Amino acid sequence: MAADPLITGVVVVYLLLVLGIGVWGYRQTESTEDFLISGKRFGIWAVAFSAFASIMSGFGFIGGPGLFYSGGYAFLWIAIVAPLAFPISWFVLGKKMRLMAEVEQILTIPDAADARYDSDVVRFFVALSVLLGVISYLAVQLKAMGFVLSDILGTSELVAVVLATVVIAAYTIGGGMIAGVFTDLVQGGIMVAGSVVVFFYALDYGGGFQQMSQELASNSPEFAGAFGSFPVMLALSWYFLFTIGNSGQPHMAHKLYMIRDVKLLKWGAPIAGLSYFLSSLMMLGIGISVRAGVETGALDSLSNPDMAAPFFLSNFVSPIVAGIVFAAALGAIMSTSDAFINIGAANLARDIPESLGMEYESDKQELWVNRLGSAAIIVISLFLAYFVQILVGILGVVGWALFAAPIVPLLGIGLNWSGATREGAIAAVVVSLLVNLGLAVGSSLYGVSLPHGVVAGAFSLVVSSIALIAVSLVTNTYSGEDIADEIYRVVVA
Amino acid sequence: MAIQWQRDKTVIGTLVVLLVMFGAMLAGGPTGQVVFSYATIALFGLYILLGVEGTAKRYSYKPFLAVIGVLVLVLGVGFALLWNFHFANPSYTDPVYWLGFPRATSVLVYWLWLPPALVLMFAYPYLFEKYIWSAAEAEEFRGMEGPDSTDGSDR
User: Fold this and answer.
1) Is A486 in contact with B19 (Cβ distance < 8 A)?
2) Which domain holds residue B74?
3) Considering only CB atoms, which chain A residues are within 8 Å of B101?
4) Which residues of A touch B10 (CB under 8 A)?
5) CA distance between the termini of chain B
C-alpha cells in the first residue's frame, strides 16, 4: 500500500510520544519493585486502563475484525466476554492479589504461587508455563506490529518490525512497568476513542446492522447466526475460557499489584470492562461491514482476513482518523507486548533462578538483570517469530491456556480456598503443562483435535482445575492453618 | 481424607460442575451444548462465591448471593432464549430479525453482552466499602508487618 503522509505523520507522532514516556519511565525506575510492579504507585484509572489495554491485544484489534470477517458473528463469543470477565476477576482476585503484595515482597505471579504453597517446584513450573506463553504470544505480537507498521509506512515488514521493536525495547527495558502502565493509559485512551469513531464509520458504510445482517443471511446464512460459521462447542469453549481465564492472565492479574491503595480497586471493574466494550465495537463494525460488502459483490474478497481492518481504514475512513486508529492498533499490540516483556523478563531473571536457589547480591544487580532479561525476551521472541515458526504455531494452539490453566486453579481458587494443598498445586500445574503441550503437539504435528470443536485451552483449564481440587481434597500439606499466618489472613480475607 | 464440609462445600460444588463440563465437552451434540452452557453459568456463580466467601463469612452472605442470583438469572434466561431461537432455525435461512440481527444473534448482542456484565460491574463498587474492603479490615491489614502500608501514605 502507498503510505499516506497524514496517516504516517500521526503514527510517527504517536511513536515519539511513547519513546518520550520511556525516557521519563527510565528516570523514575530506581529498584526492581519499580521495574516489575511500578513501585505500587498508580491510581485506578492507570491500573484499570492498563489491565484492559493489556488484554486487548493485536489479536483483538487486528485479528478481531479478521475473525468477524471470516466467521461472521461467531467472534462475538470472544468479544462479549471481557466486560463480564473483568468484574469476575475483580471479585475473585482484586483484593487478594493486592493484599499478597502487601504482606510479602511479591513482584510476580510465580512469587504469589510460591508464597501461597511455599514450594519452589510450584514456582518453577508456573514460571515455565508463563514463560512459554509469553514467548509464543510476544512472537505473534511482534510480527503483528511489523504487519501493521509496514502497511502504514509503506516499508518492508523487516524494516517495520525492527523500527517497532526499537521503540518498544527502548521504553520497556528502560522504564519497566512505570513506562508500561503509563503508555498503556495513553494507548487505551486512543483505542477507545478510535474504536467508537470507526464503529460509526462502519455502520454508515454498511447501512446499519439490519441491512448488513440481511445481506449476510441472504447470501451466506451461517455468517448471520449466533455461532457464525464455527462449531457451537468452539464458541461456547471460547466463552468459558476467556471469561474465567481472564483472572489467570498474568498481564492482567499482576496489574493488581500495582495499585497504590487497596481502596482504589473500587471502580476498576467498570472502568476496565466498559473500556474493553467500547474498544471492541470497531472489530464488530469493520469485520461485519466488510464481510457484507464481499457477500453482495461490492468488495473483492480479501486475500488475508487480517487485512479487514487495514483495508477498511485505508479506504473508507479519513486519513487523520485512520492514523489515530492505526496508532491505536499499534497501541493494542504494544500494550500487550510491554506486559509480556516485563513478565518474561521476571521469569528469566527472578522466578526461575530463585526457584533453583540462586540469589542476587543487591537490588541494583537484580534490576539490571531484569533489564537484560527484557532484552533477551525480545530477541528470543523475534528469533522464534521468524526462524522457528513451528514452535510459535504449536504454542499458539493453546495460547491463553498456558497462563489460565495453571494460574486460575493455583491463585483464582487457591487464594480463596485454604484447603488447596501443595500437592494439589503441583498436580494442577504439571497437568496443565502436560495437557497443554500434549494437545498443542498433537494438533500441530499429528492433526489430532478434541471432539465437537472443543478448544484445547478450555479443556486444559477444566482438567487442571479438577486436578487442584481433587488432589487437595485427599492431601493436606500446607493447607488450612499450616499456611503462613499472613498469607492465611489474605486467603480468608 | 481431609475434607471439612463447611470450608470445602463451595469448592466441592465447583468440582461437580467442572466434571459436568468435562462430560458435556466430550458428549457434544445439542444436549452437550446446552448442558455445557448452563454448567458454565453455574461455574461463574461458584467462582465469584469462592472469591467473596471470606468477606461473606465475616459480614453476610445475603448481598453476595443476591448479586450472584441476579447474574445467574440474567444469564440463564439469556441462554434459554438463545437456545430456543437457535434450535428453531439453526441454519438461519430467512430468519426473523430483532433490532438488526436474527433473533438468536440479537439475544447474544443485546442480552448476553452487557446486561450480565453491568450487574457485576456496578455490584462491586456498590458492595466495596461496606463489605469487600471495610474500614475495619483496612485497619487490620495496616497493623500487619509487610513491605508497604495499605494507604500509600508513605509515598
Assistant:
1) no
2) 9-130
3) 73, 209-210, 213, 224
4) 417
5) 48
- All residues at 6 or more sequence positions from A487 whose CB lies less than 8 Å from its CB, including other chains: A100, A103, A104, A115, A116
pLDDT at residue A393 greater than cutoff 80: no
Amino acid at A466: I
Question: Shortest CA distance to B11 belongs to which of A20, A471, A81?
Answer: A471
Q: What is the pLDDT of residues A427-449, one digit of tens each?
A: 999 999 999 999 988 988 888 89
- Residues with Cβ within 8 Å of A343's Cβ and at least 6 positions away in sequence, in order, are A108, A109, A130, A134, A250, A251, A254
Q: Does B69 touch chain A (CB under 8 A)?
A: no
Q: What angle do CA A464, A352, A115 make, to 5 degrees?
A: 65
For chains A and B, count residue pairs whose Cβ atoms are closer than 8 Å: 250
With an 8 Å Cβ cutoff, is B107 touching chain A?
Answer: yes
Q: How confident is the model at residue A53 (pLDDT cuts 50, 70, 90)?
A: confident
Q: What is the pTM of this model?
A: 0.92
Residue B114 domain-assigned (yes or no): yes
Do residue A416 and residue B50 have CB atoms under 8 angstroms apart? yes
In a domain, B151, yes or no: no
Nearest to A415 by CA among A164, A194, A115, A144: A115
ipTM value for the complex: 0.92
For the cut 50, the answer to whether the pLDDT of residue B149 exceeds it is no
B3 within some domain:
no
Domain for residue B4, yes or no? no
Is the model's pLDDT at B155 over the cut of 60?
no
Confidence of residue B146 (pLDDT cuts 50, 70, 90): low
The single residue listed with the C-alpha cell 445481506 is: A215
Option in B55, B100, B152 nearest A261 (CB):
B152
- Report the number of distinct structural domains present in chain B: 1
Question: What are the CA-CA distances from residue A407 to residues A109, A273, A346, A400, A414 (Å)?
Answer: 8, 21, 16, 11, 9
What percent of chain A has a predicted confidence (pLDDT) above 70? Answer: 98
Is A30's pLDDT higher than 60?
Answer: yes
B82 touches chain A (CB under 8 A): yes
